[in-house]
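--- STAGE predict ---
source: upstream dedup step, 1 unique chain passed
mode: sequence only
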Amino acid sequence: MIKFSIKFPESISPENIPVLAKVLPEPAPLETLNMENVEEVTLQDYGTAQSANPSRGRQKEAYEEEDGGHPQGMGCSQQ
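--- STAGE serialize ---
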């Protein structure tokens, strides 16, 4: 059994990149994205988003309506 301890450098000088490219295997090809299914979003820290927009809980209602659910405050009544 051989145990390897590898320490990766914090950065690589531009002169060393061609040397590494020669000794390392080819990278796997990147997966092609279907741009029809891509949506651009902006991520925020959860705490920051909640304090910046206190009415954020109302968005759940919109999703419920889209999915055929009931708006908040309305429920199914027994007959």
